[in-house]
Structures are given as structure tokens and as C-alpha cells.
Amino acid sequence: MPPRGYFPDFLTPAASLGSGLDEGVEAVLSTPRRRLSTELAAMAMNTSLPPWTRRLADGEPEVLRRLGRALRQHHATVLQPAWRQISQRVQQDRQRRVQTQCAAGTEAMLRTFDNGLSWQPPFLVADYPVDRDLHLDGRGLVLVPSYFCRRTPVTLADTGLPPILVYPAQAHGAARVPMTPSGNELAQLLGHTRAAVLQTLAEECTTTELARRAGVSASSASEHAAVLRGAGLITSTQQRNRVHHSLTTLGSALLAGNPPPSVAGR
Asked: Is there a single domain that holds both residue 94 and residue 161?
């Protein structure tokens, strides 16, 4: 696996996304011989490959079995000891994107990206080492936060495969929650600072984190949270010596500009 440049798509199968390690390894080992040969030949154009990869390109069963054992051993030796840290980073990133999408819509979620990704409607633009366009043509785009993707987003080289975009997973609180399309209306209703506090709570956080993200003092964040809580837009829970704040269903609906039927009917 070169530090940059092309690497074979068959080593990152879509089967591993929802099913895990065993299914992913099995998908790698079940790669058709023609695809093995084509992708390894493409890699050999810019990377010096060891002699045994010729046997892999031919789909020799023993070499494929060795590859499967190597993948599992690498996971057990290198990844498993740090899996808690790895999975925590990924889950925090995914939770933030999902909560923003539920509260404010897909475009608002796409605006949360940085580190080489920017939403420029109707395009998601990546700081990619190769100048290329990927047209979805009605297909969905799978966004994959990765602990090991550190510089630029990565996608599959074969545009005929399901569209997948791997991007650097961000630590908790690293992403800025953007103003939603209804931001101006929210500011007129709540005031600019309180609207910013509400939008910041698209992801649950403590009072200290809330103050930092909204750019206000801790006492001011606490006061705004109290007003929003009294209006039924957020809830606050005490966990040890910290207070955690999160949106209610009403608060999420207000951010999305789509109040629940029970509220709209009043």
C-alpha cells in the first residue's frame, strides 16, 4: 500500500462497511481473477511490487489464503489494541453528521465538512490529488469517516463501483455546526447569540463545550441554555459534575424549519 497514489479498489470492499471484518476479508478473497489482474497491473505502473503479487494477480488459492491470514493478523496485532480509540473517533464524527442532518437537513450536514471537503451546491468539492469528476447518476454516496485518512479524502478509482468517499474522522467538537437555511429567521426570533447556541446543540455537549462553540462565556451559555430549556427546545441532564445539553424533538424541528404536526396545528 503506497503512502500516496493509486491502490487497488478490491482491498477496500463495500461488503466490510455494514458487515465487518470477516465479510470484508471474504469479499477480498472472492475478487474475480480479471479484476485482481487489472487492478494490480494498474498499481504496478507507478509502484514497485514484490514478485509474489504476480501469483495473487493469477488468483492462486494459496496466495489468496495467505492474504486473508495477513489481513486478520494485521487487524489483531495493529488495530485491535487501539480499537476503542479508533471506533470512538469514528462514532463521534458519524454521530455529529447524523444529528446535524436530522436537525437541519442534508445540505447543512454537508456544510460541516472541512479538511479538504467543501459543499459548493450542487457539488461536494474535495481537495483531491487527481482532477476528476464523479457523477452519482442517481446513486447514493456513502460517506465513510476514517481514523487513518489524515490528509485528503479518498474515493474508489473505478467509477463503476458504488460511490464511496472516505474522509478524515474528526475528534469530538472539531467541526463547526453551520448556520441552517433558516438561520436568519432563527436569529430574528431568538436573537443572534441564542440562535447560535441552539444551532450548536445539533450535537449534545456540556456547558463548557457549548460556550466554546458559540463563542460566549460559560455563564452566558448557561443563561441561554436555561431560556431554551424553559421554551422546551433543549433538555439538560446532570452527569457527575457536568451538565449535558441536547435538542428536544421540538428544538430539532425548529432548526429544520419543520415543526411537528402537534405544534403546527396549535
From this structure: yes
Are 78 and 88 contained in the same domain? no
- Of 139, 168, 197, which marks where a domain is finished? 168
The pLDDT score that the predictor gives to residue 57 is 95
Q: Packing angle between helix 218-230 and helix 207-214, nearest 10 degrees?
A: 100
Residue 2 domain flag: no
How far apart are the C-alpha atoms of 169 and 82, rounded to whole Å?
15
Q: How many domains does the chain have?
A: 3
pLDDT 10s digits, 131-164? 888 899 899 999 999 998 877 888 888 888 889 8
Task: For residue 122, give the C-alpha cell.
Answer: 450542487
Domain around 113: 84-168
Tell me, yes or no, whether 120 and 164 share the same domain. Answer: yes
Nearest to 5 by CA among 37, 48, 35: 48
* Domain match, 72 and 138 both: no
Closest CA to 168 of 116, 123, 203: 116
Instruction: Give the list of residues 6+ apart from residue 193 with CB closer than 8 angstroms, or none.
Output: 214, 216, 220, 224
Band of pLDDT at residue 180, cut at 50, 70 and 90: very low
Task: Please determine, for residue 112, whether its predicted confidence score (pLDDT) is greater than 50.
Answer: yes
Residue 143 one-letter amino acid? L
Same domain, 108 and 51: no
What is the domain-level CATH number for residue 244? 1.10.10.10
